[in-house]
Amino acid sequence: MLFLSFPKVPKSDTFHLAGLFLTSPALLFAGENAGSLWHTEKLDKILDGKAVKVILTKGTHMDLYDKEEFVEPAAKNVVEFAIELVVISACI
Questions:
Q1: Where residue 53 falls among pLDDT bands split at 50, 70, 90?
Q2: Residue spans per domain, the chain
Q3: How far is 71 from 83, CA to CA, in rounded Å?
Q4: What is the dihedral of CA 11, 12, 16, 21, to 10 degrees?
Q5: Bridge partners of residue 52, in order along the sequence
Q6: Most buried one in 20, 52, 75, 86, CB count within 10 A?
Q7: How many CB atoms lie within 10 A of CB 55?
């Protein structure tokens, strides 16, 4: 039963709905050498400049989880992004 839907997974593509559902500011991260980088690039293109995209040099997908040299700059970007949102919200 667990594998009944597995053949449908590769056929499933909901990227076309991203612009509809991602209406809030978005922050996208990817490692430069990540196999999943294309997901970030595609989503950024769909959101048409409405997202902040951060590509970490020489990083892979897994590096963003537990390697300090990638986690620290990513965390700093999250903080900067959040502060900017708070400032913008305060000005409205």
A1: very high
A2: 25-91
A3: 18
A4: 180
A5: 27
A6: 52
A7: 16
Contacts of 36 (CB under 8 A, 6+ apart): 30, 61
- The single-letter code of the amino acid at 6 is F
Of 40, 38, 30, the closest CA to residue 60 belongs to: 30
Q: What are the angstrom distances between the C-alpha of 89 and each of 5, 24, 25?
A: 42, 12, 12
In tens, the pLDDT along 7-36 reads: 766 666 788 888 888 888 899 999 999 999
DSSP E strands: which ranges in the chain?
26-31, 51-56
DSSP-derived 3-state class of residue 24: coil
